[in-house]
Design goal:
Blueprint: H1 9-18, H2 24-34, H3 40-71
Helix pairs in contact: 2-3
């Protein structure tokens, strides 16, 4: 069962610090999103951030593909 405790300001500061560190951020987001012992709020936050990563990657791929089409006709 997931931990339902409220996250404190200090918890959020640590979360934001960890997701600002390259490579560590992706690892921690997957750990938080996939772990059954993680606080539900933290888990939902991690899932939302990972979904935004996917959206941004898709946008970048489309952008580069369209630019490649313009420059390499």
């Amino acid at each position: 069962m997931k931990n339902q405790d409220t996250l404190s300001v200090g918890d959020w500061m640590i979360i934001l610090l960890l997701i600002s560190i390259p490579v560590i951020n992706i690892i921690m987001l997957f750990v938080w999103a996939l772990s059954s012992d993680t606080n539900e709020t933290k888990s939902n936050f991690a899932k939302a951030v990972l979904m935004w990563f996917v959206v941004i990657i898709i946008i970048w791929i489309l952008l580069f593909a369209s630019l490649a089409g313009i420059f390499y006709k």
